[in-house]
Amino acid sequence: MTQQDITTPDASRDGSAWDPDVEVMIDRMRSLDVKPSWQRGVEAVRESLESIVRPPGPEMAEVVDAAADGPHGPIPVRIYRPVQAPATGAPALVWYHGGGMIMGSLNSFDRLARDVAAATGAVIVNVDYRLAPEHRYPAGNDDAFAALEWTHRNADDLGVDLHRIGVGGDSAGGGLAASTALRSRNTDGPAIAQQVMFYPGVARRADTPSMREFGDSVFLTAEDIDWMKNMYLGDDPSRDDEYGTPAIAESLAGLPPAIIAIGANDPLRDSVEAYGDRLRQSGVQVAQLRYPGVGHGFAMQTASVARARLAMAEVGALVAARFANPVG
């Protein structure tokens, strides 16, 4: 096997077979003739996401709504304390939900926040950052960083350990976690214990094997990616910077340890894994997990997909281990 085989995974090595649980979801979506997000429009996809009824997530010891100080006013946050977390000195993750920077809320991502809290044993500070197109770049990124600063300032009141605060997110939220880690490094901002990213949106669409094979997925299409990126960042990639598009950062050295989870059938797979490879080559401790048979958004599918539950448990165990055994 050559080095190129290792660093640029070929979709054919995993095949395009879907997990049986995921196949059920795909068949249902096709029977309902669910159109790609870019064809439905912002309001329709927002309404669709908010209307999904998910089984209740794990019970928490406490769930509290609060507001973080933001650059343009208060930022709603929802704080989840899992039953296994101590009342004081608990680890914490400042969490950014997915939704392509155009949709999603504390309510629609409540189940995921509960799953992450229960799996990691960490307090989750779920951030309701501003969305495009009403609020374009850098609004969401500014809110993400402000929420991290607020969590650090209020660590004692939140009952969390100042030295064990990480960042994390799924999809667009994973991109915000990567961006926040970069920004904190560059500005001598708050210390970040680790970054946890499910299929993070760290790059614009690229012509990769995974994009060619899975770019017409019912979960996320190539056109969806362009549509959402353009709505938040604008349609001129030459104007991008490393906070809006972390994959173009000149250096990834000095960033916190990372955990990256991606589905083998996600069109973003190759770009995400390339980012993880760059982190590792830059001296960052990285755990990259690739899950067969699942696509974009699988962390939101724990109620119906057994492999998603396994992924959540494995990622959660890694996060807990890193919080329990900090390095450096």
Automatic annotation (TrEMBL):
Start and end residues of each Alpha/beta hydrolase fold-3 domain: 93-299
Protein's name according to its UniProt entry: Acetyl esterase
Keywords assigned: Hydrolase
Any one GO molecular function term: hydrolase activity
Top-level taxon in the UniProt lineage: Bacteria
Entries under PANTHER family matching the protein: AB HYDROLASE SUPERFAMILY PROTEIN C4A8.06C, ALPHA_BETA HYDROLASE FOLD-3 DOMAIN-CONTAINING PROTEIN-RELATED
This protein's record includes keyword Hydrolase: yes
Pfam families: Abhydrolase_3
Keyword Hydrolase in record: yes
Enzyme Commission number(s): 3.1.1.-
Species annotation: Gordonia paraffinivorans
